[in-house]
TrEMBL record:
Domain F5/8 type C residue range list: 69-217
PANTHER family per UniProt: F5_8 TYPE C DOMAIN-CONTAINING PROTEIN, MULTICOPPER OXIDASE-RELATED
Lineage of source species: Eukaryota, Metazoa, Chordata, Tunicata, Ascidiacea
The organism of origin for this protein: Clavelina lepadiformis
Pfam families xref list: F5_F8_type_C
Residues that span the membrane, as ranges: none
Official protein name in the record: F5/8 type C domain-containing protein
Domain of life (superkingdom): Eukaryota
Length: 232
């Protein structure tokens, strides 16, 4: 007759309940909040405590911080090729046509998988924000706009560096919710001669057009000349 003896007589490991979320690390401009839990009757990784970890982390307070200075539009209006460049352009919708509240816009090619538009100022200028707008084709009624983007500036080493959020990551800006609305985003003033908008997502998919205006606390430098337009 076989004998049986109890073994491993202990409570199996299991996760405890999550603690409360911590206070957000920033009041605006993206911060972090987190919470913790412990493995009861064991350690994290043991059977019963092997699904997930002891910490969870989420971003919080993702809205823009208010401008720390009275930022105003720089009103950059220029002749073709003098200040503006881009990863690609549709004919009649070149980079230099990306002026706010006009009948034109910058529209990259649908095949462009790394869309960006760049403004090269003639001198280094302190920039503290950007306003962006889409484009509505009035003849067809078709809307185009950029829904998410990043802003990069050229540093002293000649490299483009993204603006950062409070977590130290590249800051992602939310664009307008339609082609006519204007979305204005602010940051602490940064001085640079060259600025680039990196497009992350567009509406409709693979298309998207952009009009924009840099904002500065130094006033309006009034670079460049008027231009002649076209229509999509």
């Amino acid at each position: 007759m076989a004998e049986e003896t109890p073994c491993n007589v202990r409570v199996c490991p299991t996760w405890g309940t999550w603690g409360n979320w911590s206070e957000c690390t920033a009041s605006c401009g993206v911060g972090w909040t987190g919470r913790q839990r412990v493995c009861l009757n064991g350690r994290a990784g043991d059977t019963g405590c092997d699904d997930g970890g002891v910490q969870e982390k989420e971003s919080c307070n993702e809205w823009d911080c208010p401008s720390s200075c009275p930022a105003v539009p720089m009103q950059l209006i220029n002749a073709p090729g003098a200040l503006f460049s881009a990863s690609s352009e549709l004919e009649g919708f070149e980079a230099y046509r990306s002026i706010m509240n006009t009948d034109f816009a910058w529209c990259p090619k649908a095949s462009d998988n790394a869309k960006w538009i760049q403004i090269d100022l003639r001198i280094a200028y302190s920039v503290a924000g950007i306003s962006v707008q889409g484009y509505l084709n009035e003849s067809t009624g078709q809307p185009f706009w950029v829904s998410r983007f990043q802003v990069l500036y050229e540093n002293s080493k000649g490299k483009f560096k993204p603006l950062l959020d409070n977590t130290g990551g590249a800051r992602t800006f939310i664009g307008p919710v339609g082609p006519i609305e204007i979305a204005t985003r602010h940051w602490e003033p940064v001085e640079s001669q060259s600025w680039r908008v990196k497009v992350l997502s567009v509406e409709p998919r693979r298309k998207g057009c952009l009009r924009m205006e840099l904002l500065s606390c130094q006033g309006n430098p009034t670079f460049g000349l008027q231009y002649e337009g076209s229509s999509l």
